[in-house]
Amino acid sequence: MATPIFQHKNILVTGGAGFIGSHLCERLMEDGHHVICIDNFSTGDVSNINALMQNNSFRFIRADVNEAFDLESYPELAPFKIPFQGIQEIYHLACPTAIKKFNDFKVQTLLSNSTGNYHVLELARKFRSKILFTSSSVVYGARQSKEPQVKEEEIGTVNQLSPRACYDEGKRFAETMFQTYKDVHGIETRIARVFRTYGPRMPLFDGHLIPDFVLDALDGKDLVLYGGKDFKTSLCYVTDVIDGLIRLMNTPTDPGPVNLGSDVDLSLETVAKQIVSMTDSTSNIVPGDDLLFLSELALPHIEKMKNLGWFPLVRLEDGLRQTIAYTKANKLLLRTL
């Protein structure tokens, strides 16, 4: 029987009310698809998807992927004709990413990287959906001083008993789950190892580097360098990451895990100074304590994504300008969330 061709794809985005997830939902709708967003608001926020709720091509389901769910049981999804059309693609982003509240979500993180994956992979098996998993740069372990860049074939070292292992080792195990389902059940999988990303809609007051810098600069408060003055990182603007995820999903053959991020090494102090300058702030820049979930990670070697036609296009200055504009426009609202 020939595969039916529909005017619109049905696409599921788990964690779709989060920072990256909400931008992904928005882009997929712009591309003309039906988008189903699942989130439980553990670290996502309804404000990220408010503007999408009025669109007939968007449906939101409040659910936890760590618990079994059946998309065909939700009456609000009837217009998408799931029993007939099914789900063509799944972007699996759901996993808590709180920094300062990391300890509050440790068990949920553990389950997201195991039970949650199982439920979503079973859904992909049922509908024969192509499924993309957003893994993380943490699978490589800590940055190495001799060679900060990592290629996808390198095997990282992660302490499976560390206080943050539920996330770091969890992401490694999650990749194993996706590869196993591909091997055993023949489903099409894609794995994106996402490096540090910034832009509008990042959570505030949780140790995320850029949004807290911007808000404190606007308020004339000290910009706190968690991790110290020598902390280095790469930063990729969110629209570049979204473009990379969609490009990876649309590849005709699985290239294996790919690094998705900027390969430009940045001093955190330099970024803070740039934000102070761009906001005409009088803020000081001061060192802060180390945070468990905030560590100096490797830089991505991105040749595989370049071979897929992808390269980060948004300059840091332009990305910061967009983030500052968003924060200024929503500052009063953001303060009350």
Q: Any overview of this molecule?
A:
Helix 3 (106-127) links the parallel strand 4 and strand 5 (130-136). The chain has a single domain, classed as NAD(P)-binding Rossmann-like Domain (Rossmann fold, 3-Layer(aba) Sandwich), CATH 3.40.50.720. It has helices at residues 19-30, 82-85, 106-127, 165-185, 209-219, 238-249, 268-278, 303-307, 316-329, 331-336; strands at residues 10-14, 34-39, 58-62, 89-92, 130-136, 149-150, 189-194, 197-198, 223-225, 232-233, 236-237, 258-260, 266-267, 285-287, 299-300. Helix content is 35%, strand content 16%. The protein has a seven-stranded parallel beta sheet, with helices on both faces. A two-stranded parallel sheet has the order 6-15. Helix 3 runs parallel beside helix 4 (165-185).
Features:
about 325 residues, two-stranded parallel sheet, Rossmann fold, seven-stranded parallel beta sheet, about 15% strand, 10 helices
Helix/strand layout:
Layout: E1 10-14, H1 19-30, E2 34-39, E3 58-62, H2 82-85, E4 89-92, H3 106-127, E5 130-136, E6 149-150, H4 165-185, E7 189-194, E8 197-198, H5 209-219, E9 223-225, E10 232-233, E11 236-237, H6 238-249, E12 258-260, E13 266-267, H7 268-278, E14 285-287, E15 299-300, H8 303-307, H9 316-329, H10 331-336
Parallel strand pairs: 1-2, 1-4, 2-3, 4-5, 5-7, 6-15, 7-12, 8-11, 9-14
Antiparallel strand pairs: 10-13
